[in-house]
């Protein structure tokens, strides 16, 4: 299955869970993906603003969280683990109507931890840089179980 198609399926499962992600990032568009890397876009809307009219730091932190998770999905992972560390540097602002370009990559995925980097830009302007570490040991097990179930469902009898 192509990487972008796989990542879209993972993202749809996030949205179908109905939690925070669907409330804040329902407009996130997955643009392209290759092994360990994904490019997404998000139009800044009124709900994404802080009281001063700029893009809220909580939104940008959420984007780093989801961007890191989708970069792990781009490693052909169905489950993407749980966050152990997330940091973000806010470089410049974004305002309503700006289109955020979110370039995420999985820098390393091991048996226990995955390390990701996320760059958020609007046009040529760098808005934020983030790093996201996730615990993936149990995700590896879940992925193996899902792969086995998929294989059994598609194998001829």
User: What is the total tally of β strands?
Assistant: 6
Mean of residue pLDDT values: 91
Residue ranges: pLDDT <50 for 5 or more in a row?
none
Into which percentage range does the β-strand content fall?
25-35%
Structural class: alpha+beta
Topology as a string of helices (H) and strands (E)? HHEEHEEEEH
Largest sheet, described in full? 6 strands, antiparallel
CATH-level-2 architecture: Roll
The CATH superfamily is known as: Hotdog Thioesterase
Q: How large, in whole angstroms, is the Cα Rg? A: 16 Å
Order of the strands making up the biggest sheet? 1-2-4-5-6-3
Could you name the CATH class?
Alpha Beta
Q: Which fold name is given in CATH as the topology?
A: Thiol Ester Dehydrase, Chain A
Domain Thioesterase: 53-126
InterPro entries: ACOT13, HotDog_dom_sf, PAAI_dom, Thioestr_dom
GO molecular function: fatty acyl-CoA hydrolase activity
Organism: Mortierella alpina (Oleaginous fungus)
Key structural traits:
35% helix; Thiol Ester Dehydrase, Chain A; alpha+beta; globular; 157 residues
What is the strand and helix layout of this fold?
Layout: H1 3-16, H2 20-25, E1 29-34, E2 37-43, H3 57-73, E3 82-90, E4 99-109, E5 113-122, E6 125-135, H4 137-154
Antiparallel strand pairs: 1-2, 2-4, 3-6, 4-5, 5-6
